[in-house]
Design a protein that fits this description.
By secondary structure, the chain is mainly alpha-helical. Helix content is about 70%, strand content about 0%. The protein has twelve helices and no strands.
């Protein structure tokens, strides 16, 4: 287990170098356990190109064929957390995928909550697009599942710890959510506490 863990950490580091695709594809194809396959897919998730598409497609097809819902959640998560310039558009496209179900809290967490909580570069994009996206998702989710929406609104909870520019953008989303018509008690409470 220790050797596998070390190998997968090394693969993640090596994937940050130029042209990591061959090494990642090789590990994915030779993987004898889910840990190694997932590590290879994760390392490739932020590297646009044919190798990424091939591995992620294969990973999903295998999980779908075996009806492994938790593995499909992992498949969503590794893409939502991937560091890439098109991270937000990737998340938006994941929400259009056949396996995504906006009424399933686990699916929502694996895509939207993972983006907000584990992809800081994209969530905290200087243009505020990550904040705008999450603010809109909170408002949309609040209609169906106030508890999930309230938890997601917590992504803005530490807004005062950021630069003045980001503080202003996050505060604007908090105020937008708070002022929305028909907002649930759960979400209103989280947002109000964040603004207090």
């Amino acid at each position: 287990m220790g050797k596998r863990r070390l190998r997968n950490v090394a693969l993640r580091y090596l994937s940050k170098l130029d042209a990591p695709e061959e090494r990642c594809v090789q590990q994915y194809k030779s993987a004898t356990c889910m840990t190694d396959a997932l590590a290879a897919a994760s390392a490739l998730a932020g590297v646009p190109g044919a190798a990424r598409d091939e591995v992620l497609s294969s990973f999903y097809e295998r999980a779908a064929a075996n009806k492994e819902q938790l593995v499909i959640n992992k498949w969503f998560s590794i893409q939502a957390v991937a560091e890439s310039p098109d991270a937000l558009s990737t998340v938006r496209s994941l929400m259009e995928h056949e396996a995504y179900d906006a009424t399933n809290p686990n699916r929502v967490r694996s895509v939207i909550s993972t983006f907000a909580g584990a992809n800081p570069a994209a969530f905290h994009a200087a243009d505020g697009s990550g904040y705008e996206f999450i603010g809109s998702q909170v408002l949309e989710l609040d209609k169906r599942n106030p508890q999930v929406a309230a938890r997601l609104a917590g992504a803005f909870g530490q807004w005062r710890r950021y630069t003045p520019e980001r503080q202003a953008l996050m505060e604007a989303q908090l105020r937008r959510i708070k002022q929305a018509e028909g907002i649930s008690k759960d979400t209103f409470e989280i947002v109000s506490r964040s603004l207090a």
